[in-house]
Amino acid sequence: MITVHTSSDGAQIEVELSGEVTSTDYSETLVPAIESALAEHENVRLMAVVQPEFKGYDLGAAWSDTKLGLSHWRGFDRIAVVADQGWVQTSTRLAAPIMPCPMQVFELADIEEARRWLRESLGSIHVTDLGGPCVQISLLGKLDPDEYQKAGAHLDDLLRDKTGFRLLIDLSAFDGWRGLTALAAHFRLASGHIGRLDRAAIVGDKAWQHLAQRVASHVLGARTQFFPAEEIDNAKTWLAAG
Predict the structure, then answer these.
(1) For the chain, N or C: smaller number of CB within 10 Å?
(2) What is the pLDDT, as a whole number, of residue 110?
(3) Other C-beta atoms within 10 Å of 112: how many?
(4) Crossing angle, helix 59-71 and helix 31-40, to 10 degrees?
(5) Measured in whole angstroms, how far is the alpha carbon of residue 27 from the centre of its chain?
(6) Cβ proximity of 197 and 164 under 8 Å
(7) What pTM was computed for the model?
(8) 66 vs 72, 95, 119, 221, CA distance in Å?
(9) pLDDT tops 90 at residue 26
(10) Which tens digits make up the pLDDT trace of 43-90?
(11) CATH of the domain at 142
(12) How many whole angstroms separate alpha carbon 104 and alpha carbon 84?
């Protein structure tokens, strides 16, 4: 059986699984709830609560689960699976790396933590005007797509009166992306402003970030330089010079 609870704004869905789940549970309960939410929101956040008496899926439900995932592959912003069964936890962790969104496992005792994880932002992007043509973007934690949308609007406001700009990208506290949709949002933000970029300084403390600077120097068509995290003031000086 599947029971569905939807948040007041419709963007967060909580699903309880108990007994044996059938294809009818999907077609008459879960699918309509998800499609209704996606009609109002670009993405939804889903929490699946697997009750102790959950016995599994029948064959029809297993196929319905596959079809649901494929047809709404890009519609999920974040998924939390709350379960005590070891096989559920293991299968979820195995599936997580190929999902286009963040997926995390919680035990039933931690259900409130799962709800907080769904609600809260997992990272943030700070956009700062450094004066003149220089702008700093600091990426903090693990980022989800919503943060890029807010950062893009802020960056557009700062660049409205600038003919070109120089960018300091601070990656010293950056932990990566929460799923493929966040990575895609990253590239959309970059591609939307690349034509106006004059110079870029990348600040970080990881080897892949230094490599990213080398790749960016060829892709961006602008002068770039890498600085260790402790040399961020030198990066700002280099950016403003000339």
Answers:
(1) C
(2) 93
(3) 9
(4) 10
(5) 28
(6) yes
(7) 0.53
(8) 10, 12, 26, 43
(9) no
(10) 788 899 999 998 887 766 565 565 555 566 667 888 899 999 998 899
(11) 3.30.750.24
(12) 13
Residue labelled with tokens 């260790």: 228
Q: Pairing between strand 123-131 and 134-143? A: antiparallel
pLDDT in tens, 112-171: 989 888 877 667 899 999 999 999 999 988 787 888 888 999 999 989 888 889 999 999
Which strand (E) or helix (H) includes residue 4?
Answer: strand 2-6
Domain end, chosen from 71, 90, 119, is at: 119
CA 27 to CA 11: how far, in whole Å?
A: 20
Query: CB–CB of 197/165 below 8 Å?
Result: yes
pLDDT band at residue 24 under the 50/70/90 scheme: confident
Buried residues in 28-63 as b, exposed as e (16+ CB within 10 A): ebbbebbeebbeeeebbbbbbbbbeebeebeeebee
Number of folded domains in the chain?
2
Are 108 and 23 part of one and the same domain? yes
Residue 155 identity (one-letter amino acid): L
Rounded to whole angstroms, the Cα distance separating 213 from 220 reads 10
Please name which of 63, 47, 56 lies closest in space to residue 3, comparing C-alpha atoms: 47
Q: Final residue of a domain: which of 59, 88, 119? A: 119
First to last CA, the chain: 67
The answer for residues whose C-beta is within 8 angstroms of residue 185's C-beta and 6 or more apart is 145, 148, 149
Q: Residue with structure tokens 């699946």?
A: 48
